[in-house]
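--- STAGE predict ---
source: upstream dedup step, 1 unique chain passed
mode: sequence only
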Amino acid sequence: MLKRLSFGVAALAVTMALAGSANALTGWTLTNTPDPNGGAVTTPAGALFELFGPSQSNAETTYTTTYTGTVPGTVEYRFHYTSPENYTFEQPGYSVNQSDTNLTNNGGILGTSTNFSGLVTFNLQPGDTYGFYINNAPLSFYQGTLTINSVPEPATWGLMLLGVGMVGAALRRRARGIPAV
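--- STAGE serialize ---
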């Protein structure tokens, strides 16, 4: 019984490891202009990062990467932005090939919102550069935080379901009393 349970746990662990590696946020470059106080912190698994805005006014912190696909593709990220200040002072956004767009809450005008979330979809060509930024306007004295999570690809979900199905099949065999192969 312990052997079968070990098999199930191992299959689930392998599935989660493979799924995690498919959506890792790797190869990103941090740029601070001109304030060196902005930064980025990544999780050990590379599935999420936090971007901190610069602490001086008229400065920008940018975190970018290059799309390495060989054919055009779509990449999605969830974001959450928080700031102790008014949104108009610390504007978060995304950039594709150095063209900036402010992030908004479901496409709306934010005004003075300091805590909002959403989804960003990039339609990319091979070699495109894309990423996220926080731009401090004049009179800004605080750092905003932009948290980014990758959205798993459909193949990742399929891999996870396959692993869970394998675990379920192993447990079902055990429940029926059929010897495992």
